[in-house]
């Protein structure tokens, strides 16, 4: 089987974004509230607002949560001495984000499976939800299981399963004689895993920016072509369209809810928030701003375009802007300078409050 090299990481970005804007519509994507919802949140964009200091935060003590999968997320345990980053609550403009009621969430989700699909950011969010639920039901039994690529916790008292499926690119990566091949037009393998979930939260972004070290594929299959590489933004757009076709063909909106997690920012380049030469390391407060100086992430338009072209409803958890403001929320120097992942307790708890609000409103 022959291969071609078609490498490029930037020149097609403008064209991909323009195409996404041209095809965007309101068929599939729901942003901020239920489409046509009548509740108080339906008139409020949950993703526009500001971070406010709140002494009642955090929502749980990480030292009391045994479900955090890596010490890298547990910044207090890793030695971070400051605590102010734990005390910020997201306040949408024009409404209040419902405070998390773990007991109510457990009752509403009784008998259901919640699955986070994506990379380590999905793991970050899954661990946050587990800690929120453990704080609400500390005596409940959380039983862990693992079947590659899924790690699950079954909350036995409520028959709830909270899972994370590792699928950094969403599309299938299959072993072939030449090596591991990422098939941009296939989710047949991964999709079989997703079918049994009642609530699905998909995330795919950070790994599209990675070069060779650590990535799980050797070649990309684009249609009938096997490529050594290609423009990663173009590849991301094609993969998302493949995923969207799977959702449209396989999801029953009457019984299943699908969310797409917005693009998570990193904080490696201080010029994006007015501190050239700085990173997240040493940051102790959010950026208090109505817009992010570094601007939106260009691929956001691709996500909106794909979601907008879908027949089935997908709720966009549009966390990018509110998370861009939280340069203080990373493990930083207490995990090798990590400005990608997030401390628990911390910012991912707000992502789950937004997920909870969406589930409350989207009936």
UniProtKB/TrEMBL annotation:
Compartments where located: Golgi apparatus membrane
Main location: Golgi
A matching Pfam family: PC-Esterase
Keywords, comma-separated and alphabetical: Golgi apparatus, Membrane, Signal, Signal-anchor, Transmembrane, Transmembrane helix
Membrane disposition: Single-pass type II membrane protein
Gene Ontology molecular-function annotations: xylan O-acetyltransferase activity
Trichome birefringence-like C-terminal domain residues: 97-357
Residue ranges occupied by any Trichome birefringence-like N-terminal domain in the UniProt entry: 43-96
Residues of the signal peptide: 1-28
Cellular component, GO, one term: Golgi membrane
Keyword Transcription carried by entry: no
Similarity comment text for this entry: Belongs to the PC-esterase family. TBL subfamily.
Identification of the protein by name: Protein trichome birefringence-like 42
Record organism: Phoenix dactylifera (Date palm)
């Amino acid at each position: 089987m022959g291969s071609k090299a078609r490498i490029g990481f930037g020149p097609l970005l403008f064209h991909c974004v323009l195409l996404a804007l041209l095809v965007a519509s309101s068929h599939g994507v729901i942003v901020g509230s239920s489409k046509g919802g009548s509740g108080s949140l339906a008139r409020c964009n949950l993703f526009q607002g500001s971070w406010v200091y709140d002494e009642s935060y955090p929502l749980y003590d990480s030292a009391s949560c045994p479900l955090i999968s890596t010490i890298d997320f547990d910044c207090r345990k890793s030695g971070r001495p400051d605590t102010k980053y734990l005390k910020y609550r997201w306040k949408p403009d024009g409404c209040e984000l419902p405070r998390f009621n773990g007991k109510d969430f457990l009752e509403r989700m009784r008998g259901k499976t919640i699955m986070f699909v994506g990379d380590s950011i999905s793991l970050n969010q899954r661990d946050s939800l587990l800690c929120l639920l453990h704080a609400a039901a500390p005596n409940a039994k959380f039983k862990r299981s693992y079947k590659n690529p899924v790690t699950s916790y079954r909350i036995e008292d409520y028959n709830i399963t909270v899972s994370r499926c590792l699928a950094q690119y969403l599309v299938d990566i299959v072993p072939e004689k030449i090596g591991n091949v990422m098939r941009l037009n296939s989710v047949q393998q991964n999709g079989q895993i997703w079918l049994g979930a009642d609530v699905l939260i998909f995330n795919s972004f950070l790994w599209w920016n990675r070069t060779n070290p650590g990535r799980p594929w050797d070649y990309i299959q684009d249609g009938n072509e096997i490529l050594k590489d290609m423009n990663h933004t173009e590849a991301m757009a094609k993969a998302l369209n493949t995923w969207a076709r799977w959702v449209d063909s396989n999801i029953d909106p009457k019984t299943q809810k699908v969310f797409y997690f917005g693009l998570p920012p990193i904080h490696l380049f201080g010029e994006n928030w007015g501190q050239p030469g700085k990173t997240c390391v040493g940051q102790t407060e959010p950026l208090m701003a109505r817009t992010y100086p570094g601007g939106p992430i260009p691929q956001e338009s691709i996500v909106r375009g794909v979601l907008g072209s879908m027949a089935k409803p997908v709720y966009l958890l549009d966390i990018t802007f509110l998370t861009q403001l939280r340069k203080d929320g990373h493990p930083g120097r207490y995990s090798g300078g990590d400005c990608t992942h997030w401390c628990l307790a911390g910012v991912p708890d707000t992502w789950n409050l937004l997920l909870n609000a969406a589930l409350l409103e989207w009936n």
